[in-house]
């Protein structure tokens, strides 16, 4: 067929006879058998000792093809070993000259399946495959597929669109994996989205594949970063920021200095990575991080765009926010004001740089966002007063009854707190982490007191997937309170259900929580929730699936209707009526 002809076409260029030549010889000869013998002699393996061995193999019924094939396989293995050896020996120019000559000779046979591995091997070892050959490979789907990644890198670096096609499905997969973790049906306060260590996360399939595709190629690394920036701008999805940091640290793990030394964020990311591992920014690392931020020189402000993206990674924000809450508690104990703590101010500075990433990259105005004085002079002292309230209440509860004042837990929230959560992004982020903190401490009073402030927050942060994922996990610690009408009304009617109809993700998180804790909720409340959480026609598949899982669980929980004993049969045997005789 035409495929065969194309496959062996290269042989003639090399002066090697092929099937076409044999056909021609046989068509134009008088004694076919003699012609075949001559063709075999001319084109067989030229070893004098074989002259006697071949007839011996014929006697044993070994086809010549089989023999030639095994000789060929043997030679190919030797050749592949030799190519790999050439790539390592002698002077650089000489070894590449040898390989280029070999490529010139063999490239015309690249379509022959038996020869292809050799051609591919030669190209793989050439740091610069001639442009013309790369174009031929690129134009042929099968050849492109068969290429080693070393060759593909040379093609990609001048073809951003083609590289984009290869990278795009991996980025989609990455975002999906993150979302699957956030919506996972396993809810626990022990294991959550932030549990895996940075090292473990970098072993993920997508990061590993991208690392492999980039190799040591700075141009490809820059392209991937450009894709991530563009996608982050287009979608505001912060998981792209995580991938930005993971990719750099994956190259760091492999000690790829060609890339790490040219990425101006390398040392900052490395230091922050250690903080994320500990889930805390200690004083020594805080100084180091501050040094990097203060060291941004005039004319190099653009690096702030990259640093802000690194700080916008949810794993970084989580670490900075947890550290902030810890610092505030320490300050209460030391009777110190927030503005007197340089460590706390640095955490806020990094939080606002991270939270400002999108605006900075979008506007291309590279300067650190201004910190609002009120955040430090009013909002943080407010949070500290909540810590004091809790402390006072707890101490009072422990007093012997005759000394107890008629103290009840403060139930109102200062209006300023609610306003801060609505209008200030950093205040909102820290406020949400404070609420996660009190939930984790099983502090039901404080939780119910602050919950109303979450209904309206800055850009709906309290209804974001990461916060709801963490909140549902921590709420499992208050599972016994789900039996209380007042608790459920505050949590479901007062918070979750205010957003379910307009935000499908919130709807999903509530269903996740109920799937986990339905057995703790009072039956009447559960029934009204099940109705309130009915999916609509427009709801996504995942939501419908969750609701039907919940309904199934609730069916199983319903007590079976009481068995009413059947009344004894009152039937008397009927008298037999004779059938009319057929006439």
Please tell me about this protein's structure.
InterPro entries: COBRA1. This protein has 583 residues and is mostly helical. The chain folds into three domains: 47-125; 160-368, no CATH class; 375-394 and 414-534. Helix content is 66%, strand content 0%. It has 31 helices and no strands. α14 packs antiparallel against α15 and α20 (314-334) crosses α23 (373-398). The mean pLDDT is 86.
In this structure, how is the largest beta sheet organized?
none
Q: Counting H and I runs of at least 4 residues, what is the number of helices?
A: 31
The radius of gyration is 37 Å
Give the rounded overall mean pLDDT: 86
Give the overall form: elongated
Structural class based on helices, strands and sheet pairing: mainly alpha
Give the end-to-end Cα distance, rounded to a whole number of Å.
84 Å
Strand content: under 5%
Low-pLDDT parts are: none
Domains, number? 3
